[in-house]
Structure formats: structure tokens, C-alpha cells
Amino acid sequence: MTEVVSSHPVAAEQRRARAPSDTGPRASGRLADVAARGRGLIVPAVLLVIWEAVVRGGLVPANLLPPPSALVATVRELLADGELQGHMLVSSLRVLAGFSIGAALGVAAGAVVGLSAKAEALIGPTFQGLRAIPSLAWVPLLLLWLGIDETPKIVLIAIGAFFPVYAGLVSGIHNVDRKLVELGQVYGLKGGVLIRRIFLPAALPSLFVGLRTGLSLAWMFLVAAELIAATKGLGYLLSDGRETGRADEVIVAILALALLGKLSDSGLAWLERRLLRWRDVYKTIGA
Fold it and tell me: Which structural domain range is residue 23 located in?
């Protein structure tokens, strides 16, 4: 009797209706996301084909612009002896250390200047002046002060990360709706509670703009440091490739920097989405 009921076409149809479907809105959204990512690969793929054809056709000397096929061989060579992994690890650790220090100081200084008109009038113009100094201008001074070990490199990267984070947070705080602040004060919010409940959630998008800009500048400042005083890192690989006439090494180092920069920015973008989602839930439940 049980078999007759379970095999009834109506019952089977009901089970199919209750079962989750892979063709629903969520699956469609995933397919659309995959398609969008796929479209983003079209232009790089076309450029690689054109690049290979131009060099193979003799329009550009292969010693100045190695074709992608030659770069693949160079990558295999560098990976086989562990050289490329070592350079990427060293550079990543330097950026992580310098960016963490610079971003932390940028958040602290941005909060002080953004929340205090007196502090902004006192130190704001100084920061704006220091911000205009080119990255390479810091290198000789840091080398004189701190030597040629890791310290000047990390300090230079921290300088690069500091100013975008500082400026982003100050801008975000200044753009907070004053009516929200007044409403929070009416409900008795003061000091750190007011900052946590009103200023921080409202300034979060601007802060992440500063963080992502600061991260990209951290990679730029890393190259400036490693080109001048380093025996390890992707900047050193760039310099070594130039001195030995290895254009393939130079291009591989550039591509490795682009890859690491993209991965780190994607990680920060993921964190931004998570925190903004948390902010929206936090505002909804009124926690």
C-alpha cells in the first residue's frame, strides 16, 4: 500500500515542488555572476593572442617584449627553484606589515581630526602638506635615518597607506548627516557610544575607499623601496631583470605584482561587503 501511494504521480509532483530547485533565482544569480566574470576575461585573452602574434610575426623584438609562451617558460623556471615564491612571500609580508601600521595610524588620526574641529585646524594642514610629497622623496631620508634593512621599507609602505586611509575617514566623518548625530544625542548617546552607533557605521563606506586606495599605494611604495635597497622581493626581481637584460623576468615580476594587488584588493572588498551587511543588520535591529 505504501508503494502505491508513494509512486502516485500527484505525490511525486508534490515532492518535486517541495524539493529545492537549482533553476531558481539563486542559481540564476550564480550563473549571471559566472557569466559576468567570464566576460571580464575576454579582453585579456584577446590581448594575449595579439601579443603573441605581434612578437611571433617579428613586429616587435622578442628580447624586448617576450611573447606569453616565453613568459610561461620563465614562470616555470622561477617556480622550479622557488625563487618566484620567495620574492612574492617577502613582498607580501612587507606590504602586510606596512599597510597594517599605516592603516591603523590613519584610522586613529582620521578619527581625531574628523571628530575635533580644533585638531583639524591644528594638524590638518600639516598632513595635507606631507601628503603631497612623492614616494621616492622619502627613500633617501629613510635610508639615512634607518639604514638598509627591513625598517625603512616597512615605514615607506606605512607612509603610502596612511594618507588615503586618513583622508577617507575624515571625509566619511564630515559627511555624516548631522541630524543623525543630533538624534543620537537626544537619546543620550555620548563619546564612544556615539562614535560606535552613529559615526562609524555612517563613515564605513568612505573608510573602505581609503583602505583600498591605501592598499594599492602600499604596493606602489613597496616597489619604490625594493628597487633601491633590497636583495629579496618583486621590486628586486624587477631591478635584477633590468640589470641583466631579462625582459621576461621584468614582465613576470610586473604580472606577479598585479596578481598580488588584485588578490589583496579582492580580499578587502569581500571584507567591506561583510561589514556593510553587518552594518545594515545592526541598524535594522537597533543594536
Answer: 2-40
Closest CA to 268 of 105, 100, 156: 100
The three three-digit cell numbers of residue 119, written as one number? 585638531
Q: Name which of 49-53, 153-157, 177-181 the model is least confident about.
A: 177-181
Nearest to 101 by CA among 214, 220, 226: 214
Largest interatomic CA distance in the chain: 91
Asked if residue 36 and residue 106 are part of one domain, the reply reads no
Q: How many domains does the chain have?
A: 2
The answer to whether the CB of 151 falls within 8 A of the CB of 139 is: no
d(C-alpha 202, C-alpha 286), whole Å: 14
Among 100-109, 131-140, 218-227, name the most confident range.
Answer: 100-109
Does 54 reside within a domain? no
pLDDT at 44 over 90: no
